[in-house]
Amino acid sequence: MVKGTDVVIVKSGRRICGTGACLANAPLHQNKSYFEFKIQSTGVWGIGVATQKVNLNQVPLGRDSHSLVLRHDGSIYHNNEEKNRLPANSLPQEGDIVGVTYDHVEMNLYLNGKNMHCPASGIRGTVFPIVYVDDSAIIDAQFSDFYHTPPEGFEKILFEQQIF
Fold first, then answer.
1. What region, left, alpha or beta, does residue 76 occupy, with left being phi > 0 and alpha being psi -120 to 50 degrees?
2. Is the Cβ–Cβ distance between 51 and 159 less than 8 Å?
3. Domain extent for 81
4. Contact 130, 49 (CB under 8 A)
5. Is 32 inside any structural domain?
6. Cα–Cα distance between 138 and 133 in angstroms, integer?
7. CA-CA-CA-CA dihedral for 127, 129, 134, 139, to nearest 10
């Protein structure tokens, strides 16, 4: 696991709190990947995919070409450009599950199992799941034993050991 200086990882590597970002140690190699994050406590946060060149101490992510992330305000950013936005009235709240699919071209988002129909793309190269937190946000990562069934054709990330 690679994490920012002030990020705290608890609950057997599944809960992220503090300030900064955490990059999973398993790249998204298979064609269609799915993973989930549960919003335990709101604040400033972001989830998505990033390359190993991402700056884990600089939040929010999405400001350069190394990350493609959904931010807590519903915007999806890559290279300092808003690529898409969650539909109005569907901002993730405390207790919500945000599912992420990635097929090497497009990232799609699911809120409590429902497709939000807001695809975003643009990131290039080998990417990894990423999450960042700030301002009291607490996020739990789910890389298996999902709350919701992955969309057709998507599967959990193939990894050898613990992911964070």
1. beta
2. no
3. 2-142
4. yes
5. yes
6. 7
7. 180
Whole-number Å distance between alpha carbons of 22 and 47: 10
Whole-structure pTM value: 0.94
Residue 154 lies in a domain: no
Residue 153 lies in a domain: no
**94 touches 42 (CB < 8 A):** yes
Neighbouring residues of 157: CB distance < 8 A, sequence distance ≥ 6: 24, 26, 28, 30, 33, 34, 35, 129, 143, 163
Residue that has been written with the tokens 């994490």 in this structure: 3
137, two tokens: 């946000």
pLDDT single digits (tens) 112-164: 999 999 999 999 999 999 999 999 999 999 999 999 999 999 999 876 555 55
Concatenate the DSSP letters of all residues of 130-148 into one string: EEEEETT-EEEEESSS-SS
Residue 156 vs residues 96, 97, 122: alpha-carbon distances, Å:
19, 15, 22
Note the residue count of the chain.
Answer: 164
Q: Is the dihedral of CA 32, 102, 12, 98 positive or negative?
A: negative
